[in-house]
Design goal:
This protein is an alpha+beta fold. It folds into three domains: 11-112 and 224-371, 3-hydroxy-3-methylglutaryl-coenzyme A Reductase, Chain A, domain 2; 116-217, Alpha-Beta Plaits, CATH 3.30.70; 376-423, Helicase, Ruva Protein, domain 3 (Orthogonal Bundle), CATH 1.10.8. Helices cover 49% and strands 20% of the residues. It is built from 17 helices and twelve strands. The chain has a four-stranded antiparallel β-sheet. Helix 10 packs across helix 14 and helix 15 (375-390) packs across helix 17 (412-423). The radius of gyration is 25 Å and the shape is globular. The structure holds (R)-mevalonate. Residues 88, 261-262, 264-265, 268, 365-366, 369, 374 line the site of (R)-mevalonate (MEV). (R)-mevalonate binds at residues 88, 261-262, 264-265, 268, 365-366, 369, 374.
């Protein structure tokens, strides 16, 4: 067990500076690192003009999101503070609450597979498909060697192209070769795409066909992560609540319209951490949804059942194409510091954290939905946002938000009226 704890009661009640101080203590952040978030009470930027201008094209500025810290996470016996970059209210609080309940029974247990990505080479106009397959198989070693010549560093770390698979698609009009590459701690797209392009001319020679696309697959089903947790029945609110939860879950299991929303809630948590750590959230999204539909029907990424004592058990499994090294994001200072806050050393460990956050987020959403409904929890921050939109400042925000909630009228026009009535502005 770890000596430091992510269980920080009242964290949400602290001011921003005090929260940052707690995070700095937990994660041993340097002064310069904390100043990347806040300096002299002001929010600070971590990307300067030159870096931003080099990251993408036609840059005109920087787009900001708040970063919140989810507390209470205990994953494989280690405590984590989880940075989440997201615009949606309640996500950080919901994840922290779910993690608090999961802690009662030991937190999350997570396990990621090897970090294998798939590179696809599409081969067309092959005169004799069976002969082509045979020749590719016989040249397996040579193809792997050519692929591995492209990335000596990856190979020296124990990664690289490990195997080849061949898929016949349609009535033989297409052969697709999969290059299976262990990308270790990188997201892997660059390495895999370079390898796929390098082997394509040899595949053309071997098959007498034409190589068209050479690109990574985002259905990263050789790079899976699974997390489980037992949610104590008492901490959840009793066995009746567990039963209500399971009825709610069944909806997603049986209906793709509901499953899409269910999985969206999972991705609320996962994407927020993927973004905070500077990873490619579109790749993770694509992988998650393709995996959810892998048997031809769109399904939830989580499963739930009751154990023999009546506790709720949850499990999530999905692909996780993320990295902790390389890519354009190594230029992003805040992303690096978020990884330091998390304390993750490897892509495997980050994947395990992400799966746990996804499960926590889904558990929290289903618990709210199957009991009090989702709007109650959303309302507080939503009302505050509306008050800010109406022009409220400082203490006025809470006052106006509380009044609107009490009246059951959380609307911009009412916030404006109250602002006028109470403060004359
Ligand atoms: C909202 O962003 C996410 C939820 O709709 C997820 C769900 O319905 O499970 C609350």
């Amino acid at each position: 067990m770890s000596e430091k704890t992510s269980r920080i009661p009242g964290f949400y009640k602290l001011g921003m500076e005090e929260r940052l101080k707690k995070v700095a203590e937990f994660s041993n952040l340097e002064k310069e690192e904390t100043e990347c978030f806040l300096k002299d009470g002001k929010l600070s930027l971590a990307i300067d003009k030159e870096i931003a201008d080099r990251m993408i094209e036609n840059v005109i500025g920087i787009y900001e999101l708040p970063i919140g810290i989810a507390t209470n996470f205990l994953i494989n016996g280690k405590d984590y503070l989880i940075p989440m970059a997201i615009e949606e209210t309640s996500v950080v609080a919901a994840a922290s609450n779910a993690a608090k309940i999961a802690r009662v029974r030991g937190g999350f247990k997570a396990e990621a597979s090897d970090q294998i990505m798939i590179g696809q080479i599409q081969l067309l106009h092959i005169p004799d498909i069976d002969k082509a397959i045979n020749r590719i198989l016989k040249s397996r070693e040579k193809l792997l060697e050519i692929a591995n010549n492209q990335d000596k560093v990856l190979v020296s770390l124990g990664g690289g192209a490990k195997d080849i698979e061949i898929r016949k698609i349609g009535n033989g009009e297409m052969l697709v070769v999969h290059l299976l590459v262990d990308v270790k701690d990188a997201m892997g797209a660059n390495a895999v795409n370079t390898m796929a392009e390098a082997v394509a001319p040899i595949l053309e020679e071997l098959t007498g066909g034409r190589a068209r696309l050479k690109i990574i697959s985002n259905l990263a089903d050789r790079r899976l992560v699974r997390a489980t947790a037992v949610f104590d029945k008492k901490a959840v609110g009793g066995e009746e609540v567990v039963d209500a939860f399971l009825e709610g879950y069944m909806f997603a299991a049986m209906d793709p319209y509901r499953a899409a929303t269910h999985n969206k809630g999972i991705m609320n948590g996962i994407d927020a951490v993927v973004i905070a750590t500077g990873n490619d959230w579109r790749a993770v999204e694509a992988g998650a949804h393709a995996y959810a539909a892998r048997d031809g029907r769109y399904r939830p990424l989580t499963r739930y059942w009751k154990d023999e004592e009546g506790n709720l058990v949850g499990e999530i499994e999905l692909p996780m194409a993320i990295g902790v090294v390389g890519g354009a994001v190594s230029l992003h200072r805040k992303a690096q510091i978020c990884r330091k806050i998390l304390g993750v050393k490897t892509a495997k460990e980050l994947a395990e954290v992400l799966a746990s956050v996804g499960l926590a987020q889904n558990f929290a959403a289903l618990l709210a939905l199957s009991t009090v409904g989702i709007q109650k929890g959303h309302m507080e921050l939503h009302a505050q946002n509306i008050a800010v939109m109406a022009g409220a400042k400082g203490d006025q925000i809470d006052e106006i938000a509380q009044r609107m909630i009490k009246e059951g009228k959380v609307r911009l026009d009412r916030a404006k009226e109250l602002l006028k009535e109470l403060y004359g502005n």
